[in-house]
Amino acid sequence: MGEPSPPAPTAVGLLGGGVIGGGWAARFLLHGVDVRLFDPDPEAERKVEEMLDNARRAWNRLTMSPLPAEGSLIVAGTVDEAAADVELIQESAPEQEELKRELLASASRAAAPEVVISSSTSGLLPSRLQQGMVHPDRLVVGHPFNPVYLLPLVEICAGGLTSQSAVDRAMGFYRSVGMSPLVVRKEVEGFIADRLLEALWREALWLVNDDVAEVGEVDDAVLLGAGLRFAFIGPFLTYRMAGGEDGMDHFMEQFGPALQWPWTKLTDVPELTDALLDKIARQSDAQADGRSVRELERRRDDCLVSVIQGLRARHAGAGAILEAHERTLFEAARPPMGGHADGLSEPLRLFSVRVPPEWIDYNGHVHESRYLQMFGDASDALLSHAGIDAAYLSESGSYFTVETHLSFLGETHAGERLEVTTQILGVDEKRLHAFHSLIRSSDGVVLAEAEQMFIHVDARQGHAGPAGPDVLASLVRIAEAQANLPRPERAGRSIGLPKPRRVGASR
After folding, report:
1. Beta-carbon neighbour count of residue 492 at 10 Å?
2. 97, 132 Cβ separation under 8 angstroms
3. What is the dotted CATH code of the domain comprising 334-481?
4. String of b and e for 3-27 (b: at least 16 CB within 10 Å)?
5. Residue 338 pLDDT
6. What is the Cα–Cα distance from 322 to 326, expressed in whole angstroms?
7. Contact at 8 Å (CB) between 23 and 149?
8. Contact (CB, 8 A) for 89 and 142
9. Are 425 and 435 in contact (CB under 8 A)?
10. List of residues 6+ apart from 44 with CB closer than 8 A
11. Helix, strand, or coil here: 439?
């Protein structure tokens, strides 16, 4: 998960723009990839644009990392148009084998031989989907999870004719847009995740069918219990821990026999009678409580963002994947240093953000903790600009903040665009002294300032040590280019109060 992402494709063709296809469109577009979308539904473009709006909203809350300039959405009138001049074709048509085979065969005839073709099927065998294709060796299954633009997992499954090169290239494409490919080792219906979900779904249907629980109660049983664990720990490690100090052996000895008990109906499904379908629909409508599907999507996305951000702070699960992808995004956004001082003689502008609503406190202003967050992100951008990347962090170390002085000069509100300028006041082999100004983009008003001192810490020694020569040279180059800038008025200023008057003293 810590490896840097390969370059993203420049363009992809999407066959199908429903829930899954629209999610693919949003993820690719937000990562700067042009999308050619074919879908016979006349409302497809509207639906995808609405999903893209939700995706933008979610990613603005998910990460402060700079995304590349958004790709272009082109609606194609035919499969041939969608397959032209792209590097990847992603098919997301309804789960009907014959329909998918026709689409994939048509796309394979129109696409260049080197184009990877992937199906989003949730369980159909790729060996059957390859039938009728031209160059079937480039077909893989790339099965994502909804919402595609937020959830990182994508299952990769090869067919009998699929080449290793196609698998490798597909994995590279998906990693480039922040996903985590999981290769299915053996071709099997349903792959891995959907087989697990199918077992849960069968039992959920039986519980409602037998009036053991209503749909909301079944959902609560998952989301308030094991679902919370599943965000960061899977069933095998969960059950190993349930075995205590003796681990999995003890767990299986104690609970293994229960697998023979007739608790579940894993291969038996209740008949989907009109009465059962009406019951499920009625209870599900009550759960929705009048909210539209877009409103439900936004609530789901907000909850997912909170969970993923929480996991990011613990370097676990989807949070660890986001953390690695953020590092890649920051590095991709870093402008080249160049061999001279051109462009460095003014305070650097390396970080900007639009204030999200959740940053606002009870009095309608941005909470003071967010100012420190923005200055911290600006410092990270400076270090990335100087050449501190994933390899440097693991091999050489980084700069650690040892002192920060903040000055709050103005208020800011939700929706405002802010940027941070950075001036290096001093640098030597171990220390870095920087000054940041937080500026409102619309009128140039300075809202806050931060003066920071950093110490370089050696990754192997675990204590202060010299910065790497290339990083140090980059920082020195900036400092020298900015040497003639006026020293900020508040640099070096300490907090002070007027000397108190003595009360009751005689003259």
Report:
1. 12
2. no
3. 3.10.129.10
4. eebeebbebbbbbbbbebbbbbbbb
5. 43
6. 6
7. yes
8. no
9. yes
10. 17, 18, 22, 37, 75
11. strand
pLDDT digits (tens, 9 = 90+) for 312-351: 888 888 988 998 898 888 777 665 544 334 467 899 998 8
Residues 6+ apart with CB under 8 A from 316: 232
Distances (CA, A) of 419 to 171, 199, 206, 353, 433: 35, 49, 55, 6, 20
What is the per-residue pLDDT for 506? 39
Report the pLDDT averaged over residues 236-260.
81
Task: HSE, CB side, 13 Å, CA atoms: give it for residue 326.
Answer: 20
Report whether pLDDT(245) > 90: no
Q: Tokens representing 433? A: 């002294």
Cis preceding-peptide flag for 147 (omega within 30 of 0): yes
Higher pLDDT, 154 or 299: 154
- Residue 416, both tokens: 């405002």
> What is the pLDDT, as a whole number, of residue 92?
97
| Residue whose token pair is 């219990």 | 225
Q: How far is CA 399 from CA 181, 295, 324, in A?
A: 32, 42, 18
Q: Would the CATH topology of 194-313 be identical to that of 334-481?
A: no
**Domains of the chain, residue spans:** 11-192, 194-313, 334-481
CATH of 11-192, one of 3.30.465.10, 3.30.420.40, 3.30.40.10, 3.40.50.720: 3.40.50.720
How many of the other CB atoms lie within 10 Å of CB of 445?
12
Token readout for 338 is: 């160049």
Amino acid at 287: Q
pLDDT over threshold 60, residue 3: no
Q: What does the block give as tokens for 190?
A: 């349903």
Residue 134, number of CB atoms within 10 A of its CB: 15
pLDDT digits (tens, 9 = 90+) for 173-230: 999 999 999 999 999 999 999 999 999 999 999 999 999 999 999 999 998 889 888 8
H/E stretch holding 235 reads helix 235-242
Geometric angle at alpha carbon 32, from 28 and 36, rounded to 5°: 55
Residue type, 241: M
DSSP string of 224-271?
Answer: IIIHHHHTT--HHHHHHHHTGGGHHHHHHHHHGGGGGSTT--TT----
CATH number of 194-313: 1.10.1040.10
pTM (global) more than 0.90? no
